[in-house]
Amino acid sequence: KNIAKRNINICILYQVYQIKMRKKIIGIGIVILLVGVVMLSASSYESSQNTIMSNVWTSYYSGEYVSQELNFTTDYILMYSFNETVSGVVSASSLSTLNKTNLKNFSIKPSVVVDGIQTYELENGKYYIVVFSSSSPNITYTIINMDNIIIPSVLELVGVILAIVGIIIAIIGLLLKKK
To answer: CA-CA distance, 116 to 75, in Å (whole number)?
Structure first.
């Protein structure tokens, strides 16, 4: 009788241990998932700190509008979408000599143009976006600091991986069966 009673007690303890272990595995999965979500949020915040968007234009001459001066001290990417207007990115030193007909001679060539979005990889220096238009342009430009973009990218990658691992571990904890 004592051996049978002891075996029943061991089985009960084992089942309680399994339930606690399942709960621990599910808890670990949820914690890892939450850490991943926090890292994704941090990535989003860091990315926003390294990105500047603006649509402020100043009338330079009649029909000529310029962006704020873009003073780059490290490598940056500048992106803007253009429409039918005559526009271009120029160095600050050539701004005073520009007109609608010679803009192409002074404009920096975009690195990539996709679906009307011009992308420029600009080095140290001062630049302007110049637009010739009859009214103030409705163009938003985006500036991304490339030196500080690595941290958000790593945070995003690790966050996605942790979120996926957390989900998998939680599912494993849910699927463990009693023996």
So the answer is: 23
> 0.70 cut: is pTM over it?
no
Beta bridge partners of 141: 54, 80
* Strand ranges for the chain from DSSP E: 51-54, 58-61, 64-66, 70-72, 76-81, 86-91, 112-114, 117-122, 125-132, 141-145
Over range 36-50, report the average pLDDT: 81
Higher pLDDT, 165 or 78: 165
Q: How many CB atoms lie within 10 A of CB 127?
A: 24
* Whether pLDDT at 28 is above 70: yes
